[in-house]
Model the fold of this input.
Amino acid sequence: MSILVVGSVFFDSIETPHGKVARALGGAATYFSVAASFFAPVQMVATVGDDFPQAEIDFLSRRGVDLSGLQKRPGRTGFWAGRYHEDMNQRDTLDLQLNVFADFKPQLAASHRAAQYVFLANIDPKLQAMVLDQLAAPGVVGCDTMNHWITGSRGDLEQLLGRVGILVINDEEARLLSGERNVVRAARRLLSMGPKRVLIKRGEYGVIQFSADSVFAVPAFPLEEVFDPTGAGDTFAGGFMGELARAGDASEVALRRAIVYGSVMASFVVEDFGMNRLRTLTPDDIERRYRQFVSLTDINGA
Amino acid sequence: MSILVVGSVFFDSIETPHGKVARALGGAATYFSVAASFFAPVQMVATVGDDFPQAEIDFLSRRGVDLSGLQKRPGRTGFWAGRYHEDMNQRDTLDLQLNVFADFKPQLAASHRAAQYVFLANIDPKLQAMVLDQLAAPGVVGCDTMNHWITGSRGDLEQLLGRVGILVINDEEARLLSGERNVVRAARRLLSMGPKRVLIKRGEYGVIQFSADSVFAVPAFPLEEVFDPTGAGDTFAGGFMGELARAGDASEVALRRAIVYGSVMASFVVEDFGMNRLRTLTPDDIERRYRQFVSLTDINGA
Done:
């Protein structure tokens, strides 16, 4: 099964305690697509400016990402610059230029409308809803959001949550959206807003998934060095949705395996700047770390 | 196998966002002993004042705790008062009176010296070493410590770490003792100080165990309400060492199961003030939550 993702493609200038990089390929849809492409064919709907390099188009195409939904428009590609603190859970935005992304309106081609696996990356919930309006009969719909929309577009976001199956959100956003500090209460409140599953990303502490009748928690893969956390959440979502699409299954067991694959992908992307690590990653690397992850978490393991 | 624990018995006055309690039974050795008593016989070495109520002696005895090493001395039992913030990871100490605990010198009776499973709860590392000096040939020795000793008695503590097998410590202490912010680097550094295993307690995010050639991580059991976190770490240690002693085994598999039992015990103790929840807990409660814990963490579960 293929996956449709709608979201941002950006250039990111990033400073971490380990160094810096200028205008690296970034954006939620990009991280998602590249991660998911290791598991299933991906259709990306996004917009870039006329400055977007052919080399990156070629990279995404080689990864099997269908770019027929990538609108190239006059102007510049979106740009973000940020600096991480010594504690890399903290970062400051130094610059944000939406550029062509400011006028992004997702238009789905006929070839996109039959999508069964859909991920609405973090964009205006009005645009996320516009995507759903154009889909024929999506099977598994995941979405992300951020503080900006939670505080500024709560009504739109709440309407959207009534239409998605899986909410993928970080712990701070979960607290803000639910009004609950405790993660269990926060998840129960978010489930009451519509999604059948809520996945809460806890950074270095892993992911916890809630449904009406189950809870599943995994730690993050322990790394000696987190080089650059940018894109980890979107890469998690890409691995997660990618594995669901590969399996063609959204049962509890399939979801748990997909959460581990998402965690594995996120553990790779933070090992280098931007998505550099994903450019050299192999399926063998992924399977090896998946097995390490099983051993890391297996109560009856040795 | 029985377990020997050496540490503090205190009264605690506790305020949390959920209410407050005055002079509740507390202290590291107490939480440890009561938790461990669900798994194996416990010998407690500690000191209390002549104000210590017979009712609490009776409670501990009913739990099968051997109190022949509990020195009752003229004066008052140690006392701590603290207040938790809305974010219960933060607390302020309002009062601390060591009382008879200030002169505590652990003296082991002949019946204690053959102990195979030993836990050195958080006390002056000089006193922890004094306990080891009195033991014949301990098999499994765990220890805890705190910021006070890490900064004030580092030399004594480092000497002690060369003599213990399992260091049980929280994440903040692990960072302080190792000088490393990253949990993997911190653990590697702590392992280089002597212990064969380092267990890092991460509060609501669970526990991660490191040895030279393995890593094991479990989340905390997700609770809708943490009523009072006091004693959670010592209760974890009690369940952990208790299960090791019950199994009579310190293999990787046994350690993993013991970490889960420790986590289960900690998840109960925080459900009520002080150790109230442990007073009504049953072995069935423990086994039921252990099974829930397995389901919570099982990648192949449903």
